[in-house]
Write a sequence for this structure.
């Protein structure tokens, strides 16, 4: 299975979340292709040849991910430019070129997830706000996956980030079938690989591995504390 | 009252609907400002000065209209670029610069309105698909108006187009308080003004005025027929 991650983020260079997800995705190797729209197409104008290239890239993927930070309740303009120009009527509606592929949305939000419900500050759920993408999946005869919502990445501690890696890798690839222990083992294995490969990330990764490998109990306690704080925030 | 119409349409020059609405809006004179995004900002990149200009333009309006053809279940990318760049956090969330203004959506769709409901081909209502704009209005503390949906403009006959003018002018300005007869008189007066001003539109407008002025009964019959055809389509 191959996954095409279409990342839309005008500030991709400064985005900690984007970098974090990109690094995580690389652990899956060649089965993942990462398309940073704002980097490759800074003008957001596609030539006929580029449209054909992008359509070919889409056709080769089994799973397509739209990944972006929420900008005014939808993706930044670069994703819309891509949809408007690459997803032609001929490609999607007539040739049914995306039929039976999966469409996943990975969306970063700056506010607490609980703000996104009726009566709360944002008033609408993430599901409602993402409806245009769901409608697109329906029109394209794609399988629309349950979105992965990442809230307040910048406030996450190491344990939460580890959990995010697992959720993200599950979402973009097929490690979902593994048990929890197998997942941990899989991640540690991959982390160790990077630990050996990449000197610059050495300290940070060693710390993460220590946390998983040796301090599981502490992590559980940390998690309980986070949940406690969260439940207090809710009240 | 002044209304700012922000029209997003990459094919604005070839769009019959866009031209039709622009001409109609001109009848309201100086109270309407028309901003054709794709014409003024073909690169969809806003300089600091342009952002300030656009923010100033927004502040002077009482009513703001986002007007566009539906492209993959939302506005074309040019409106999103405008939102992403002009509607800054500082302007909208901190200064509350749009507070108490109205936000209206005028959206053109190519399919029958009945396709936009649960179980029909599009499966989601226009209201649902426009949720991101409604959420924006909420965040900006604006009054969100009931959207004006224009379906299948290219199939409309003259009578339907006349009805559209009335609906549209009601929507963008305050002629809503007039009675039906006053509205007809108002439109005829304005049509006649243009008829005298603009030689190129002479024949077309004369025909429209004839239809309203002299063939009201026939128009009613036409309307009944349309309704009959519509109700048969529904079954």
């Amino acid at each position: 299975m191959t996954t095409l991650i279409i990342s839309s983020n005008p500030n991709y260079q400064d985005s900690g979340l984007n970098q974090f997800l990109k690094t995580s995705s690389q652990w899956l190797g060649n089965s993942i292709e990462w398309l940073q729209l704002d980097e490759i197409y800074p003008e957001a104008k596609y030539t006929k040849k580029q449209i054909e290239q992008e359509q070919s890239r889409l056709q080769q993927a089994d799973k397509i991910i739209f990944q972006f930070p929420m900008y005014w309740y939808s993706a930044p303009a670069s994703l819309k430019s891509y949809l408007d120009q690459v997803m032609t009527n001929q490609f999607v509606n007539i040739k049914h070129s995306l039929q039976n592929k999966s469409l996943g949305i990975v969306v970063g939000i700056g506010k607490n997830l609980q703000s996104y419900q009726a009566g709360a500050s944002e008033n609408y759920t993430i599901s409602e706000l993402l409806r245009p993408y769901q409608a697109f999946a329906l029109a394209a005869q794609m399988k629309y996956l349950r979105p992965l919502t990442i809230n307040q990445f910048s406030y996450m501690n190491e344990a939460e980030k580890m959990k995010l890696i697992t959720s993200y890798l599950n979402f973009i690839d097929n490690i979902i079938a593994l048990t929890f222990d197998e997942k941990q083992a899989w991640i540690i294995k991959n982390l160790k690989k990077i630990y050996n490969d990449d000197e610059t990330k050495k300290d940070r990764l060693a710390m993460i591995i220590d946390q998983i490998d040796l301090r599981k109990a502490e992590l559980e306690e940390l998690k309980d504390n986070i949940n406690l704080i969260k439940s207090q925030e809710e009240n």
Summary: Chain B has two domains: 3-177, 179-235. The longest helix of chain B spans residues 216-234. DSSP finds eleven helices and six strands in chain B.
